[in-house]
């Protein structure tokens, strides 16, 4: 792992005001606009962190609606066969989404087959899609997948008029992707929310560590959004970055990230780009006798909820993959009834992003098994109503 540092010196210099004015601002802000020895706060930092703090409380409340109110309104055909391609064993969210889809399709009399590649490499994803094509399904679902390495397979599906629904992917709806559900736009909302929480907790400029996962382009892209939010609201903040490999998930990832924090002892916060990367981070840090900085994540894994409750994981922006499984089935129901445009209107209807944190008093009880707490408590009932069930 080779960390890289980014310091927004030009932006910071442009934002610095006259010394007397800045001193007055710092005095007025007190602890909220404090300074550290090597990263003095500018007027832009103070205002940005103040704005982040004001926004955090709005992220504490979970939505009560799935955001879709228009019923399908037509008889939904039964006996449809759907093939879902996983994103590898490290893609825990896609496994949760599949399990939820399996429950949802029972309501409509459909069949669901799951093909899980050993890793999300281009070759293995291509093989999985070729297998799906041979099954001649009515639709294919892909997850957290970049379209470029699988363009040949997507073209074959399009030639056979087989719709492709993507979840958590970096590519927009259109072309070979019939619908992108919770793509970069939706995930960017979560990235902005957790960046705001990071700054609100820090209260002053400092060094923020970021851990990326190159095997998933979507993760790298919303990490970019997180960085942009930090840089915009705290020009004096310094960012140090590293990446871990997909192969390290569940094995050396925790140790690798612990070593990253030990190599950067001035780090005030750590952002784990994809939460499942950090499921063994806290045990690895404890074994090494290392003290972690405040730690943040996106796409909360079920196994991380106890760490949230204890405060070991400072905050996380959950993505309800179970609800996404039902949302995917709803989109397919509209596609199969000739309402693709209507489905496109509902693909990213997140009511608002949510942050879980012990200091917000909203961490749910740890789930049993590989399930996920419902953000919208009764979302299955809301979808069934849309389907006339």
From TrEMBL:
Keywords associated with the record: Signal
Similarity annotation: Belongs to the bacterial solute-binding protein 2 family.
Location(s) in or outside the cell: Cell envelope
Record's protein name: Periplasmic binding protein domain-containing protein
Residue stretches in coiled coil: none
Segments forming domain Periplasmic binding protein: 97-339
Organism: Streptomyces cinereoruber
Entry-linked Pfam families: Peripla_BP_4
Signal peptide coordinates: 1-27
Gene3D superfamilies: 3.40.50.2300
Keyword hit for Ubl conjugation: no
InterPro entries assigned: Bact_Solute-Bind_Prot2 (IPR050555), Peripla_BP_I (IPR028082), SBP_2_dom (IPR025997)
